[in-house]
Write a structure and sequence with these properties.
Helix content: under 10%
Distance between the termini: 37 Å
Shape: globular
Radius of gyration: 15 Å
Structural class: mainly beta
Order of helices and strands: EEEEEEEEEEEEEH
Largest sheet: 6 strands, antiparallel
Strand order of the largest sheet: 1-2-10-7-12-5
Number of strands: 13
Strand content: 35-45%
């Protein structure tokens, strides 16, 4: 596992096993990814120009992988923003808690796979950006 540090997010390269019959990559919780995986979901057939995400989590960390095609993930910690182009199925983006995320610029046929630390819990979501900023300010004081 190889990591590239960034100010908001972290790209983690997973093991890539090259084989003439097709390559294989592995992501294991608490080994390749710094949490146990409780939920897996994926988005696909995203229409051209559509945006996904648009929320933050109070507790749940996520690991986002472009298993096919490409898309851009923009992370926002309330102060700084950073965008990451995901286009390799052997790399993923670690998204920590208290981070607003949007996903856009999906290529045709792109598949976004998300490995989540927690089962779905609506109360963990912050779905309005102004509420997110207020939440971040309340945690500072």
């Amino acid at each position: 596992m190889k990591e590239t540090e960034a100010s908001i997010g972290k790209i983690i390269s997973l093991q890539k096993m090259v084989d003439p019959r097709g390559n294989l990559s592995i992501a294991e919780g608490m080994k390749d990814i710094p949490f146990n995986i409780s939920r897996v979901y994926w988005t696909y057939d995203v229409p051209s120009g559509a945006c996904r995400g648009g929320h933050a989590h109070k507790h749940c960390r996520e690991f986002i992988i472009a298993v096919s095609g490409s898309f851009t993930v923009t992370l926002d910690n309330g102060r700084d923003k950073q965008s990451f182009l995901l286009n390799h199925p052997y790399q993923g983006l670690l998204v920590e808690t208290d981070t607003w995320r949007t996903l856009d610029d999906f290529s045709s046929g792109a598949v976004c796979l998300v490995l989540a630390e927690d089962p779905f819990e609506e109360n963990d979501y912050i779905r309005e950006y102004t509420e997110f900023l207020n939440y971040k300010c309340s945690k500072k004081g």
